[in-house]
Amino acid sequence: MISRAVRAGAVAAVVSGLPSTAHALLTGRDVLAATRAAGTLLPGRRDRPGIAAGLVAHVLVSTFWTGVLAGTRCRGVARGALAGLAIAVLDLCVAGRAYPAVRALPHAPQVLDHLVFGAVAGALLDRPHGTDQRTTSTTSPGCSEL
User: 91-139, pLDDT tens digit by residue?
Assistant: First the structure.
């Protein structure tokens, strides 16, 4: 279960930035603005955005939320996306209010990033475990856990 959560969190963390990155590219904005803004979430960096700090913050926040999703048994794309929406409200509307760099980001792409994170994490947390031969169910003939 832990390795599945680690994999789900890692993949979700990487692909979740695609909507805001695409938006930045299409609108001519800074593609690293969200990364820099995330850096302000770290203690002592509220007014000091940075790329390295942003990457660290993104990993920490993604790890935390993946743990919450795994711990609450949030499974599937739809449930994950709903969880991503709830996470967006907490991250952007509640916590984000205290961080000017986060508040300055375009809201819609950030919400989409959170939806993608939740949907991908939920989908990957829903995948069956203990199967071999690329089977899709733990009760299929190729399963090693019968």
Answer: 999 988 899 999 999 999 999 999 999 999 999 999 876 554 454 544 4
In sequence order, what are the beta bridge partners of 131?
143
- What token pair was written down for 26? 């299409």
User: How far apart are the C-alpha atoms of 94 and 54, rounded to whole Å?
Assistant: 19
Strand-pairing partners, residue 143, are 131
d(CA 88, CA 90) in angstroms, rounded, equals: 5
Tokens, residue 6: 């680690």
- Three-class secondary structure of residue 143 per DSSP: strand
Q: List, in sequence order, every beta strand (DSSP E) within 59-144.
A: none
Neighbours of 123 (CB within 10 A): 19
Q: Is 133 exposed, middle or buried (0-12, 13-18, 19+ CB in 10 A)?
A: exposed
pLDDT digits (tens, 9 = 90+) for 62-73: 999 999 999 998
CA atoms within 13 A on the CB side of 9: 20
Per-residue confidence (pLDDT) for residue 40, from 0 to 100: 95
**pTM of the predicted protein model:** 0.83
